[in-house]
Every structure is written in C-alpha cells, then in structure tokens.
Design brief:
By secondary structure, the chain is α/β, with parallel strands linked by helices. The chain contains 12 helices and 17 strands. The protein has 2 domains: 2-107 and 299-323, ornithine cyclodeaminase, domain 1; 113-295, NAD(P)-binding Rossmann-like Domain (Rossmann fold), CATH 3.40.50.720.
C-alpha cells in the first residue's frame, strides 16, 4: 500500500511536533543529504513555462529512494483566490519503483524552503546576527521568520511588502511568538537599513530590482528566495558581483537564479561544499554573502524522507490502493474485465506481504 498524506494530516503533524521544531528537524535531513551529495542522481528541474506561470517536475534519487515533486508557480492566482504555489510529492523504492508515499507538498514546500534558508544562513551569516529584514510578506513569509527564529535566534524582523494587507496578515499570524519583535517598514530601503540578514521573498515573474548596491552594508547576508525561473530576479547584478555567492545546484541556478544576469564564468560556490567544510561560508565579518536560492529537488527528497519517518512516528496519513496488485502481475487486464469479486484482484497488502517474504 501507499501511504497518503493530505492537508489535514499535515495540520496534525504541525500541531503534534510544533512548526519551529518541525522546520529544525527537517533542516537536519536536508543537511544530511547535502553531505551525501555525490551519492545522488541529480538534474535541473523540468519546467514548462506557460502564460502567467510555470509548471515543474523536480526529481532526485539515491541508491535506495527516488523522490519527485510536482509544483507550479502562478503569481496571478491570488487574483482568483488561489494559491500561487501548489504541489504534491512522491517517494518510491528504487529497487522496485513502488511508490511508498504520496503527499500534499504545498505546505511542505513552504516548510522545506524555510528550513533550507535558515540552514544556509547558519553557515553564511555572522554568528551574532539577530536582526532580519523580510521583503515580501506573502505565503512564505511566516515560515521564513519561524525558521530564522528557531535556528539562528533572530529577535527582530523588519517587514515590507507593496501590499500592506500582506504585512497585516503576517503580523497577526506571528503576534504571539515569544521573543520576536515585528517592525513594519515604509519601504524596502528602510527595512534593510542596519539588518544583519536580508530575505527577499517576492513572487512576480519579472526582472525586478528589490535590492540595490546602496542598500547593502558590510557583513550582511542576503537570502534571495524569490528569483526562481528564467526572467525573474530580485537583486541588482552589482549586489552579486560584490558578494560571495552560494547556490544549490549550479547548472539550475545559472538558468533560474539571480546569477542569470551575469556571465557564465562568474564564480559561485555550491552549497554542499560549504556544509561539508570544503569551502568556508564566509571569510570575514565584513564580507557580504548571498544565497541565490531557487529550490532544488534534493531538498524535496529530504523533506519526503522526513515526512515518511514522521508519518510512521506520529501515525498520520492512511494507506491507499494507488497501484493495482493482481495475483498474476502479467494479467493487468482483469482489473477492467473480471467481476469485482474475482480472486485475481488481490489486495495491495497481500502483494506487499509477498514482496516482504
């Protein structure tokens, strides 16, 4: 049988574990998999760019498990009261190809993106960072703040969004987080001034300039989350040129990240090299660091592994007959030709038991 996890199951998991703990635990799965970088079959995501958005498949596998995520990005959806990003994920056995987990991944994508952002910031930002600016206060924003609060001890977040209602929403949602100060800023420049960490999390699929060189201060860490497809950027090119830039998977980021503005010879550092200690995250307290984040399939693979283990630990989800299980695996036709009570239509649990034996 395939374990199926829906939105209500995710709510149960978050309530059982706690959102900040969930993000922190998932970050350790992501770290562990980046440290196994060379064990994975990797590729850039498959993207179909459509009017007003993009639809993508994101696969990754090691010798035991294969995972993929279906995800879209349609910024216009909010105008018809739909989410900009919607996703589901699958985890399967490499040996047989059998899907062991089929899950909602819209909420999980927000959680794993935040977990990755904070994981990278721990390696790149100054250890004494306590203040963050958050430019873009939409669906991802609360997750980012909780991740940085839990994993870096961020105490103050300056907020700016071109839509004041988005900031209102964020401030309501996180009003009761202990030890967290939320400050509304009148502009991106005001939010960024004096911040240790700057996160840009905008959604429009355009070449925007959210951060300019005059806004960058020595020692800042920039977490650029929103630039994630061809033709979409958030940082002025000179911000990148003046910084130490870390990426997830260089072939993908060259196409989708903020570095798409720069020539292919512009030097970047892949994240796994930093996490493994092969390369330093930052070389001085005054250095500016940038995480040019586009989201990589390995992070979804890690999140699927975490979700599989958490589902078993907390008893969430249910088993479904996603895959036919005939007694004779060469006789699939009986599922459309035989009576419903025919013995050839064996249950998936019976097939699972037979495989285990």
């Amino acid at each position: 049988m395939t374990r199926y996890i829906d939105v209500s199951d995710m709510r149960h998991l978050a309530a059982s574990v706690g959102t900040q703990r969930l993000i922190t635990e998932m970050a350790e799965y992501i770290r562990a998999d980046y440290l196994r970088w060379n064990e994975f079959e990797k590729s850039a995501r498959v993207a179909n760019h459509v009017p007003g958005g993009v639809i993508e498949l994101m696969p990754a596998s090691d010798s035991t498990l294969y995972g993929f995520k279906y995800v879209n990005g349609h910024p216009k959806n909010t105008r018809i009261n739909m989410l900009t990003v919607m996703a589901f994920g699958v985890l399967a056995e490499v040996e047989t190809g059998f899907p062991v987990l089929f899950s909602e991944f819209t909420i999980m994508t927000a959680l794993r993106t935040a977990a990755t952002s904070a994981l990278v910031a721990k390696a790149l930002a100054r250890p004494d960072s306590r203040t963050m600016a958050l430019i873009g206060n939409g669906a991802q924003s609360e997750f980012q703040i909780l991740a940085f609060r839990a994993m870096l001890g961020i105490e103050e977040v300056r907020l700016f969004d071109v839509d004041p209602a988005a900031t209102d929403k964020l401030m309501r949602n996180l009003a009761d987080v202990p030890g967290l100060k939320l400050v509304r800023a009148a502009s991106a420049a005001e939010a960024v001034r004096g911040a240790d960490i700057v996160s840009t999390v905008t959604a429009d699929k355009t070449n925007a300039t959210i951060l300019t060189p005059d806004m960058i201060e020595p020692g800042m860490h920039v977490n650029a989350v929103g630039g994630d497809c061809p033709g979409k950027t958030e940082l002025h090119a000179d911000v990148l040129i003046g910084a130490r830039v870390v990426v997830e998977f260089e072939p993908q980021t060259r196409i989708e990240g903020d570095i798409q503005q720069l020539p292919p010879e512009f030097p970047v550092i892949e994240l796994w090299r930093v996490l493994s200690g092969e390369v330093a995250g930052r070389t001085s307290a005054s250095e500016v660091t940038v995480f040019d984040s586009v989201g990589f399939a390995l992070e979804d693979f890690s999140a699927l592994r975490y979700l599989r283990d958490a589902a078993n630990q907390y008893g969430i989800g249910r088993d479904i007959d996603l895959i036919p299980a005939p007694e004779n695996p060469k006789d699939l036709y009986q599922f459309v030709a035989a009576p419903l009570d025919a013995p050839a239509l064996a249950s998936a649990p019976a097939q699972a038991a037979a495989r285990a034996a």
